[in-house]
Amino acid sequence: MRSSEVPQAAARPTLEAVAARAGVSRATVSRVVNGEAGVREVLAVKVRRAVKELGYVPNRAARSLVTRRHDAVAVVIAEPETRVFADPFFGLQLRGISKELTACDVQLVLLLTEGRDDHERVGRYLAGGHVDGALVFSLHLDDPLPGIIHGAGVPTVFGGRPGWAGGVGSARYVDCDNRGGARQAVRHLVGLGRTRVAHITGPPDQTSAVDRHDGYRDVLPTADPGLTATGDFTPAGGERAMRLLLDRRPDVDAVFAANDLSASGALRVLRESGRRVPQDVAVVGFDDMLPVAEQADPPLTTVRQDIEEMGRLMAAMLLRGQGQAGGGGGAGTAEEGDAAYGEVDAEDDGACVVLPTELVRRESA
Questions:
Q1: CA torsion 170→171→176→178, rounded to 10°?
Q2: Each residue of 186-232: pLDDT tens digit?
């Protein structure tokens, strides 16, 4: 084909073209496209029809100059990518976040951290004015990210109760009732007549693990310290902890694991050691991640938290502060005695949201 015969790309529709098609001014089109108030509905309908007919796509760079919004939110996960893509918890939370952002035509920018160099990179990116806010989760107690993000000056919502000094009073966050859920799990095991209930913890530098351990101690305040073994929320960590528990206390008759992945590792070790579940050792997990809990052998009794809804609420809380809230959904409440989580009020711009938990019984306990 000769160069003169190469088809030319169609000219991109402009605001002026939309205005001409709708029979309104360019300023009116701009206000409708940018979601501003002050346009009569009959005119807004004409503009939206013209936008659809012409296939007009707003220029985001130009639009951000007018609205001072970038229509993008950073999702910062304080874990290495090998952990993020291997643990279904993160996929469920990202799905909830993505649904809410998509409903508001906001882009998701995923940022992972492997080490201190990545922390600095994340800080530079957030401070560079590329996004309207940040959603941050899986923080560890000594993590510098909260300070870095605060220095970047972007609105932020955290996944999980903040654990750094002064964090609870100032930060917006979404969490589940970790402590109350742990109490449900341990009470269930005690109710089955189990008297040597062990606990496989999560990482001791994460508030969710601390709260779940506290819930275990609420029900069994005099439990032998030898019945507690440290895990890391992974199957391998659950295996190591279960082997240690069997070495210390071969008479253990129940295990509360701090998450489903740890429980799956514990189940594997119990099978290898010849223990029957639940006849010899009953096992309860935490999360109710269906690909893990339902496919465990035997299927896992666990404490359900709505992981996807937690992600959606994080995004909704951030967007609400920017006047961009999308779909609905109510907030849960913490159990009585958990006032340390702060006020549960999804409508307060400075609030936290703590979702309730539920024990789901299957065959392991």
A1: -60
A2: 999 999 999 999 999 999 999 999 999 999 999 999 999 999 999 99
